[in-house]
């Protein structure tokens, strides 16, 4: 196991030459010294060759299967379409590889159960979901503020995550329902992970709705709300058609706090701020040094592989289960209407 300061770097392979592979793995690997990208595979070989040439990846496997058979790889990063995440995570674990799989880790609770069984059958390979916002200190800082009670009780949390789709994501899995398309499957996991860290995921009531008017009946705008036993309400809007926005707003008894543009560190090393958001107070409460979400994530994955950091898979399965319930609520509401 590589956990010493002078240990050789982890050799990783990439399954899927999708656009996300560049910011999420190939660029961070240039910064994270404990990682080397040793191989890549894609169903369309030409795309894999292009990335291999651009990032000096020494080996292009002829297929996804061949990459998993490579004996000198410690782990893999899965950057395939949403519907393939669970299948290839299972295959990789069974091949003895550590796995970092792009969010969402799977689409259905049944897939989560399969992953859980495979992961528990061996103590060696580690499994992690690529929810990059989870690896930044601003969430724990905000949790400390909530837990301290310094601004009184927290009454409401409002989240907006909207990323307008260019050409309605034509030819992209995000516009194909059977492939896990739609705004909530793609973006809702960020909301749930944030809530899980801040206040937990044990609501007493779930409300959700969508017109499901995107391509192939995908949800192009989705609204959800969770009511907690203490009266707290957490609401979220995800959308592929509204103007870009990624923000959390927290309504306390004595102030309103906001985390504006919390997606910004996906583009590079940028600051995150927690600000007061009242007409008489727009001051910054906390400011974090410039960080890159994906660099943080890759560093965390090396710690997971070495056993220095816990996988926290129970949290993952909890998110998958609740996301499924929220989607079912929206679909049922549309049927009733």
Q: Summarize this, please?
A:
The chain has helices at residues 21-26, 45-55, 64-69, 85-94, 109-120, 138-148, 183-198, 293-306, 313-336; strands spanning 10-15, 35-41, 59-60, 75-78, 98-102, 127-130, 154-162, 205-210, 221-227, 233-239, 245-252, 256-259, 270-276, 284-291. With 337 residues, the protein is of the alpha/beta class.
Quickly list its features.
single chain; 337 residues; alpha/beta; Dihydrodipicolinate Reductase, domain 2; six-stranded parallel sheet; 25% strand; globular
Domain module count:
2
Write down the overall geometry. Answer: globular
How many H/I helices? 9
- Give the class-level CATH name of the largest domain: Alpha Beta
Strand content: 15-25%
Give a count of the beta strands, DSSP E runs of length 2 or more. 14
In angstroms, what separates the terminal alpha carbons?
Answer: 56 Å
Q: What portion of residues is helical?
A: 25-40%
What would you say the CATH architecture of the largest domain is? 2-Layer Sandwich
Radius of gyration: 20 Å
N-to-C series of helices and strands: EHEHEHEHEHEHEHEEEEEEEHH
Average pLDDT for all residues: 95
Secondary-structure-based class equals alpha/beta
CATH superfamily of the largest domain: Dihydrodipicolinate Reductase, domain 2
Strand order of the largest sheet: 8-9-10-7-11-12-13-14
The residue ranges in which pLDDT falls below 50 over 5 or more consecutive positions are none
**CATH fold description of the largest domain:** Dihydrodipicolinate Reductase, domain 2
- Main beta-sheet strand count, sense and barrel state: 8 strands, mixed
């Amino acid at each position: 196991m590589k956990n010493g300061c002078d240990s050789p770097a982890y050799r990783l392979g990439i399954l899927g030459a999708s656009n996300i592979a560049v910011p999420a793995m190939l660029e961070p690997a240039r910064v994270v010294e404990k990682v080397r990208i040793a191989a890549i595979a894609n169903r369309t070989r030409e795309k894999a060759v292009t990335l291999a040439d651009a990032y000096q990846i020494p080996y292009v496997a002829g297929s996804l299967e061949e990459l998993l058979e490579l004996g000198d790889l410690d782990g893999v990063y899965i950057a395939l379409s949403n519907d393939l995440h669970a299948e290839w995570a299972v295959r990789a674990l069974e091949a003895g590889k550590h796995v970092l799989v792009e969010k969402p880790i799977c689409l259905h609770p049944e897939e989560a159960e399969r992953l859980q069984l495979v992961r528990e059958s061996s103590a060696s390979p580690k499994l992690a979901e690529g929810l990059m916002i989870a690896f930044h200190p601003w969430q724990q800082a905000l949790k400390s503020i909530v837990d301290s009670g310094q601004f009184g009780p927290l009454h409401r949390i409002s989240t907006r995550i909207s990323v307008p789709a260019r050409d309605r994501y034509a030819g992209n899995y995000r516009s194909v329902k059977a492939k896990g398309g739609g705004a909530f499957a793609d973006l809702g996991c960020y909301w749930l992970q944030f809530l899980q860290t801040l206040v937990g995921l044990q609501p007493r009531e779930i409300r959700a709705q969508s017109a499901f008017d995107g391509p192939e009946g995908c949800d192009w705008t989705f609204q959800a709300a969770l009511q907690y036993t203490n009266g707290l309400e957490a609401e979220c809007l995800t959308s592929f058609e509204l103007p870009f926005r990624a923000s959390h707003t927290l309504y306390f008894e004595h102030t309103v706090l906001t985390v504006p543009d919390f997606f910004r560190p996906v583009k590079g090393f940028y600051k995150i701020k927690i600000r007061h958001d009242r007409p008489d107070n727009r001051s910054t409460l906390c400011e974090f040094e410039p960080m890159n979400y994906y660099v943080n994530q890759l560093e965390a994955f090396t710690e997971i592989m070495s056993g220095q950091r816990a996988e926290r898979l129970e949290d993952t399965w909890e998110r998958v289960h609740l996301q499924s319930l929220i989607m079912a609520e929206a679909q049922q509401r549309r049927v009733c209407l």
